[in-house]
Design brief:
about 230 residues, alpha/beta, 2 domains, 12 helices, about 50% helix
Length: about 230
């Protein structure tokens, strides 16, 4: 082959590569979209999905999971767009990059410990840590009673200190409504459970120190509109 032809071939290959890079860069994010990642079997999947739909109203939902987990009855009947959880799947990778929010369900305790050690050998941890590096909104959701939550609170706190949001769906505003006096210590517990806002009724009182903590933790206060009327 002549030198000129080799140069032409190199230029052609180079241009093709650049075109592909430009195409990838042109991919736009999907507004109000949420990718739910379910790598492990979890109890209470119905509670998870109801919580997500309630707190992300109007969002388009995708579920990245293994084929066998997608056969769970509640998932199968729940108008979610399913996609295989597979880092070798280009459609899955494109979705990871384009969705607005990523929510991880069913993380094992040993996976939490690995995150703290920045061990990304597990695919789900690789996604979590990579998202953290590029400031991609990502939430880890757990469904735990107080007894078990206290057992894993050290791991949860360590993960939150890394900048990863952890939400315990059992500590929701429905439980908050049962509390008559919101104290500083109660607000600290809210922070640990990952809540970003609280909805108060007209009969609930909040101490000045609790208000200071809410401002410090950037937890927004809202009031029940139905009770105000």
């Amino acid at each position: 082959m002549e030198i000129n032809n080799i140069d032409k071939l190199v230029n052609t290959v180079t241009q093709n590569v650049l075109n592909k890079i430009n195409c990838n860069n042109d991919s736009k994010s999907i507004d109000k979209s949420c990718l739910i990642l379910l790598q492990n079997m979890v109890f209470g999947i119905k509670d998870y999905l109801e919580y997500i739909k309630e707190n992300y109203s109007g969002y388009e939902f995708y579920l990245g999971t293994a084929q066998e987990l997608s056969k769970i009855n509640y998932i199968d009947n729940n108008s979610l767009q399913l996609i295989e959880f597979n880092l070798a799947n280009s459609d899955f990778l494109n979705l990871l990059n384009s969705v607005e929010v990523i929510i991880v369900l069913g993380l094992r305790i040993n996976q939490m410990k690995a995150i703290i050690e920045t061990d990304d050998s597990d695919d789900i941890n690789h996604i979590i840590l990579s998202s953290l590096m590029v400031n991609k909104p990502l939430y880890i959701m757990i469904n735990s009673n107080d007894l078990m939550f206290n057992k894993i609170s050290n791991q949860v706190n360590a993960i939150q200190k890394m900048g990863i949001n952890v939400i315990n769906i059992q500590k929701t505003n429905s439980q908050l409504n049962k509390v008559n006096l919101i104290t500083e210590s109660y607000v600290i517990n809210l922070k640990e459970s990952g809540l970003k806002e609280i909805v108060l009724g007209k009969k609930q009182l909040i101490t000045p120190l609790a208000k200071d903590k809410l401002r410090e933790f950037k937890i927004e206060i809202k009031y029940n509109e139905e009770e105000i009327r």
